Amino acid sequence: MSKRDELITKYAADIKDKIGQTPDMDFLTKVTIGCGPSIYNADAATVSGSDKSELETVKKNFLIKKLGLSDGPKLDEAIASVMEQYGKSNRNKYRAVVYYLLAKHFGKESIYK
């Protein structure tokens, strides 16, 4: 099993155990690949739900640039909702899982097809 496959398995377990959803493995794989090499860097692989600048980066680089959404309060609400779903007390919020949940939230799965 490759390192990426191991990470995808770990992300799927997070979606199932911490969020209570059955992961769409094909879509999760595409989102993980879309994250690029950041998934192998311990710091870049996670998102800090309490770091305002990090959440702003998620909004600008992922929601606006990648998904093509317009800036507005809906984006901040979606990020807050995903952080709540993932669990505020959960320290390791994997970037690929956060992106997966946000793309699903906005119905933007087609970007990865």
List the helices and strands and how they pair.
Blueprint: H1 3-19, H2 25-34, H3 52-66, H4 73-86, H5 95-105
Overview in brief:
This protein is mainly alpha-helical and 113 residues long. The chain has a single domain (3-112), classed as Recoverin, domain 1, CATH 1.10.238.
Structural notes for this entry:
- Helices cover 59% and strands 0% of the residues.
- By secondary structure, it is mostly helical.
- It has one domain (3-112): Recoverin, domain 1 (Orthogonal Bundle).
- Helix 2 crosses helix 5 (95-105) and helix 4 packs across helix 5.
- It is globular and about 40 Å long.
| Helix share bin | 55-70%
- Look at the structure and name the CATH superfamily: Jann4075-like
The number of domains is 1
The oligomeric status of these chains comes to single chain
Element order: H for helix, E for strand? HHHHH
**Main sheet record:** none
Features:
single chain; 113 residues; mainly alpha; Recoverin, domain 1; 5 helices; globular
